[in-house]
C-alpha cells in the first residue's frame, strides 16, 4: 500500500489587511534602489501573510481565483498609476504560490479598487475561488 499525497482543498474565501502606503514610481525620478526596496517589501509582506494564513498549502495555484485589491490611500491614484503601485502585491501572491501567474491566460480575475482612508492606509486583499 502506498501513501498518497494529501489533497489540497480550496478555502471559501480569504481576507487580509496589509498596512502600508502605496507608491507609484512610474512617473517620478527616484533612485532605482528606492523603487526596488518598495517592490521587495510589498512582495515579501504579501507572500508572508498568504503563507501565514495557510492559503499556499490549501489552494491549488492553477485553480481560477478572483482577487480583489482594495487600497486605502491618502489620495486617489489615476488608473494606470494605481495598477503600477499594486503590481508587487500581485507578484507577492505569485511568489507565495497562491496564483500560478498573473497574465491574462492564467484564468485569474484581478480587480482593483481604491478608497480614501487617510488614517489607516493599506491594502485589503480578498481571494475567492471561482467555480469552473
Beta content: 15-25%
| CATH architecture heading | 2-Layer Sandwich
Residue ranges: pLDDT <50 for 5 or more in a row?
A: none
Strand order of the largest sheet: 1-4-2-3
CATH topology: 60s Ribosomal Protein L30, Chain: A
End-to-end Cα distance = 33 Å
Largest sheet: 4 strands, mixed
How many beta-strand elements?
Answer: 4
Estimated structural class: alpha+beta
The gross shape turns out to be globular
For this structure, what is the CATH homologous superfamily? Holliday junction resolvase RusA
Quaternary state reads: single chain
SSE blueprint:
Layout: E1 14-19, H1 32-52, H2 55-58, E2 65-73, H3 79-95, E3 109-116, E4 122-129
Parallel strand pairs: 2-3
Antiparallel strand pairs: 1-4, 2-4
Helix pairs in contact: 1-3
What does the model show?
With 132 residues, the chain is of the alpha+beta class. The protein has one domain (14-129): 60s Ribosomal Protein L30, Chain: A (2-Layer Sandwich), CATH 3.30.1330. 32% of the residues lie in helices and 23% in strands. It is built from three helices and four strands; from the N terminus they run E-H-H-E-H-E-E. It has helices at 32-52, 55-58, 79-95, and strands at 14-19, 65-73, 109-116, 122-129. A four-stranded mixed β-sheet has the order 1-4-2-3, with helices on one face. Strand 2, helix 3 and strand 3 (109-116) form a beta-alpha-beta unit. The longest helix has 21 residues, at 32-52. It is globular. 21% of the residues are buried.
